[in-house]
Amino acid sequence: MALMIFSLRIFFFLSVLLSFGVIELEGSHHACSNLLNLELPSTCQAKEPYRTGYHFQPPKNWINDPNGPLIYKNVYHHFYQYNPHGVAWSPNIVWAHSTSNDLVNWIPHDDALNPSEPFDINGCWSGSATILPGEKPAIFYTGINSENEQVQNLAFPKNLSDPFLREWVKIPQNPLMIPTEANQINADSFRDPSTAWLGSDNRWRLVIGSKQNQTGLAILYMSEDFLHWTRVNHTFHSAKENGMWECPDFFPVSNSSPIGLDTSTNGPDVKHVLKVSLFDTAKEYYTIGTYNLDKDLYNPDKGSEESDLGLRYDYGKFYASKSFFDSAKNRRILWGWSNESSSANDDIKKGWSGLQTIPRTILLDESGKQLVQWPIEELEKLRTKQVRLPRIVIEGGSLHEVLGVTAAQADIEVTFEISDFEKTEVLDPSWTDPQILCSKKDASVYGGLGPFGLLVLASESLQEYTAVFYRIFKSHNNKYVVLMCSDQSRSSLNENNDKTTYGAFVDVDPVHEKLSLRSLIDHSIVESFGGEGKACITARVYPTLAVDGYTSLYTFNYGKEGVKITGSAWSMRTAKINRSRKEENE
Ligand code: DQQ
């Protein structure tokens, strides 16, 4: 029997007392709590407790945005913002470069773009790739020029017969788009060109992030030859009170079949998505709408907007995301930067900062009202030692340990079924903000239907854990409302971390549909997918006790109503990420 049943009251009692400092725990695990001091007792095996096993990260230093993902000759290319000189962001950042056959294992290459010319001497900032006719990749990126202005530059591969595209040549005509008084673009707010798309009039378009006063702007440029670009006079799309829009991503999605579409696709079965990253709040919003190619205007559908009333890819630590069309598998793939929640000092001790999330396939949901995301299927190759959870009802107030998995590096997928809704709490109409609701009603607050879900990266006596869970409410119009939370408040005894609790409403009807939850747990990151990818929350956590072999995984239910659970958990193998060939042979 893979699960052991614990008495829950003890857990809650213990954890509440612990969190209020009423009980202090002693014991062998406690000695591991200073992992960052590097004076590790021999029992604490983890020299780098927070380095991930299957998420993309280079061996050291700072990374941020994914840039210009593309597939070329069946090789996936990942470029990313990288500071080769330290663990903090620096303006003279470069485009680092890795390639992969499966989007899981990666080999490093030399940097693709370094500051070198007057048009980018102060930094090679974010941008995107476009595959031109004849399978010719091109990269548009923002250069910080010698005057510290943001300008847009173009680069091509030096050798198209090299599937690894190891060398890139910046064209001598750069910069191709510049901010001027005449075009009324502010030189500090003109960056991150999107992938270009081709209209039926044979002209190329791309959008660039900007702002005017506090209005976020997506500025449209057009070109006939990919070299000469002119700003289109009207605004492609904008939103008030947003501040600077970074990293705009504009792409089509199919509303008739579960496939991804090339960026230039348009037509009756197509909707469009515009994603923007808000510099002021570090949140991303996306809208679903209609792209009118004749007028070159994007109109979000009613109710789709760039605000907390709108849609987010991820309600946790996820920013500056970028998608691309994978022509080998007819899918669109999205990934984003997951910034640290640790202090700058702890980053220095770690020697690195920033991860990329697991690439996700994105599709338009059947409702047409939102996207759904799911970790790429290739990730499942890393799954091993499957543990099947016995199909049981977890009674209200119980906690079950999932034994037999490496809980610090795992993948767990469960489904909850509810048959009795009698004790559902009523949703107060003022509870409109899911993040605030999750903070008020964190995992320790008993409820009617929920909280139920997972305790991940949990220490032996539950002094530390991250809780990913659901609560179900009934609204005044008698509809059930599903709230998904990722509660980091007890994730670490180290008080220097940002432990914000995140939340999202999930559009699932729990009376007629099963409610699923998948969490990818990888030492310092927990990526959770609720309602089969309708809501995603990524959290960064730094346990001091729940490290490597000292980590446990639980299912729990602290509601009054029992919930039936089924599913599996897997230990995850370590991916080969940016290791040198020598290390790979070891
Ligand atoms: N990061 C880049 C910018 C972009 C920002 C600089 C978003 O191009 O706007 O590293 O994180």
Automatic annotation (TrEMBL):
Its EC number is 3.2.1.26. One of its GO terms (molecular function) is beta-fructofuranosidase activity. It is found in: Vacuole. GO terms for biological process: carbohydrate metabolic process. Residues 55-375 form the Glycosyl hydrolase family 32 N-terminal domain. It is an enzyme of class 3 (hydrolase). Belongs to the glycosyl hydrolase 32 family. This is Putative beta-fructofuranosidase. It comes from Rosa chinensis. The lineage of its organism: Eukaryota, Viridiplantae, Streptophyta, Embryophyta, Tracheophyta.
